[in-house]
Amino acid sequence: MATGKVSTPEEKVVHHDDQSLKGALFSSLVFVGGGIVSFIVLLFVIYMTRVGI
C-alpha cells in the first residue's frame, strides 16, 4: 500500500505563516509604496502648475 507524505499540524502552520507573510509584504509594498509615489507625483504636479502660472 502506497503512503503519501504525512504532514504534521506544525508544518501546515509554518507553511501557512510563510504564505501570509509574503502576502502581507506584497500588500504593504503595493499600498504604502503606491501611496508615497502617488503623493510625490501629486506634489510635483501641483508644483509644476504653480511654477507655470
Question: What report would you give on this structure?
Answer:
The protein has one helix at 9-52. It is mainly alpha-helical. It is built from one helix and no strands. The mean pLDDT is 82. The protein starts with 8 loop residues before the first helix and ends with a helix. This is Cytochrome c oxidase subunit 2A. Keywords: Membrane, Transmembrane, Transmembrane helix. The chain crosses the membrane at residues 24-47. It comes from Virgibacillus halodenitrificans.
Radius of gyration over all CA atoms, rounded? 23 Å
Mean pLDDT: 82
How many extended strands?
0
Class from helix and strand fractions: mainly alpha
Number of helices: 1
Beta-strand content:
under 5%
H and E string? H
Shape: rod-shaped
Ends distance: 82 Å
How much helix, percentage-wise, in residues? over 70%
* Main beta-sheet annotation: none
Low-confidence stretches: none
Organism: Virgibacillus halodenitrificans (Bacillus halodenitrificans)
Transmembrane segments: 24-47
Protein name: Cytochrome c oxidase subunit 2A
Keywords: Membrane, Transmembrane, Transmembrane helix
